[in-house]
Design brief:
Radius of gyration: 20 Å
Mean pLDDT: 74
Strand order of the largest sheet: 3-4-7-8-6-5
Number of strands: 12
Largest sheet: 6 strands, antiparallel, barrel
Order of helices and strands: HEEEEEEEEEEEE
Low-confidence stretches: 1-32, 38-42, 202-221
Structural class: mainly beta
Number of helices: 1
Helix content: under 10%
Strand content: over 45%
């Protein structure tokens, strides 16, 4: 069943990690297919059945006449009958933030996501890749966002690429904008060599010191 107007009402309350304080004033334009799921009488645990399923979500968020964000996800499941109600995005979630020229200047991509609606906490899992407005790139396997405390945090390994250095470590805390952050247990800080610099043999500078310490992570693109 296609119910764009109903989905519109739900999506305008959808909080996303990198929306950076503008979502409260945003207007949503959505394109998706929504299915209201009925629970069968013979289902013993009705809390395990989603109360709503929405496919192929594509959402533009605008503010002050400009398109600011795009949110896309293949599937959105709502479990409102659970004691700890949540929304699940099992096939991944992507958010892009645009500047006034409609160029992407910040983004988030992850393999899956869960929003715990009563606790107002997001959990992003699997190859979480983030780009902030300063151009810093973040790569980790899991990260949390607590809306009430306005903090982003993780206990996982994190790889950060800045303009002049790479930082790696375990444990991470940040503001919502991902612009003021601390790595709790740094394991390495590597300067990025000048790509035009030449070593003594006349070749390019060696990149060996830039090798991430956790090769299981997908490289940032």
């Amino acid at each position: 069943m296609d119910n764009s107007h109903s989905s519109y009402g739900k999506l305008r309350y959808l909080p996303i990690l990198v929306a950076m304080a503008l979502i409260a004033a945003a207007t949503f334009v959505t394109s998706c297919s929504e299915e209201k799921l009925s629970t069968e009488a013979d289902v013993k645990d009705q809390a395990s059945v989603p109360t709503m399923l929405t496919r192929d979500v594509s959402t533009l968020i605008s503010d002050s006449g400009y398109t600011r964000y795009r949110i896309t996800t293949p599937i959105w499941l709502m479990y409102e009958d659970r004691a700890d109600a949540c929304w699940k995005f099992p096939e991944g979630l992507q958010l892009e933030k645009y500047d006034n020229r409609m160029k992407v200047n910040a983004s988030i991509v992850c393999d899956s996501a869960t929003y715990f609606s009563q606790r107002r906490v997001w959990r992003l899992d699997g190859n979480v890749r983030m780009l902030n407005t300063a151009g810093d790139k973040f790569l980790t396997q899991q990260i949390f966002w607590d809306q009430d405390s306005r903090t982003v945090y993780s206990d996982s390994f994190i790889h950060i690429e800045r303009s002049n250095r790479i930082i790696e470590g375990y444990g991470f805390t940040s503001n919502e904008q991902m612009t003021n952050y601390v790595v709790n247990r740094p394991s390495g800080i590597f300067p990025i060599p000048d790509r035009n610099a030449q070593n003594n043999n006349g070749g390019p500078a060696s990149p060996q010191s830039l090798t991430p310490q956790q090769p299981a992570l997908t490289p940032i693109k």
